[in-house]
Target: NTPCR triphosphatase
Amino acid sequence: GIGKTTLIQKVTQALRSSDVPVDGFYTEEVKEGGRRRGFDVVTLSGKRGPLSRVSSDSSASRREYRVGQYVVDLVSFEQLVLPVLRNVNHGSDSEKKICVIDEIGKMELFSQAFIRAVRETLTDPATVVLGTIPVPKGKPLDLVEEIRSRKDVKVFNVS
Model:
């Protein structure tokens, strides 16, 4: 609720209007009747799908990935995001690319394939990552702390 995604969207628009190659995804709140029902993943090419939704019942009948009241739709998330990250990582090395990853948080980190793809993207010398990570609270998230402590990463606090 601070405005990280709004900032990411504005930066992305500015980059595109300057003809800078940019790809990636952001997460967007889904509201129904003024109440948050979950989050969607939106790729910069315009594809959209569910990341999570409020669970209607508290008994997990099958293996569910949960963050608070939200059930994470890992299949939808991976189907949308992994091709985007693979495409960025396997593009031409002649020009620098910008990869937007909003966000690298608890819900997204249920995906081991996403974790691998983010690490690969961060180590690609032809790619600059513009990403969002959560402020540390509670149990540290391994990949988030790994990113935060990288020498080639600059962290800005958005407030």
Notes: The radius of gyration is 16 Å. Strands lie at 22-32, 35-43, 48-54, 65-67, 70-72, 97-102, 127-131. The helical segments are 4-17, 74-89, 112-123, 142-148. The chain has a mean pLDDT of 91.
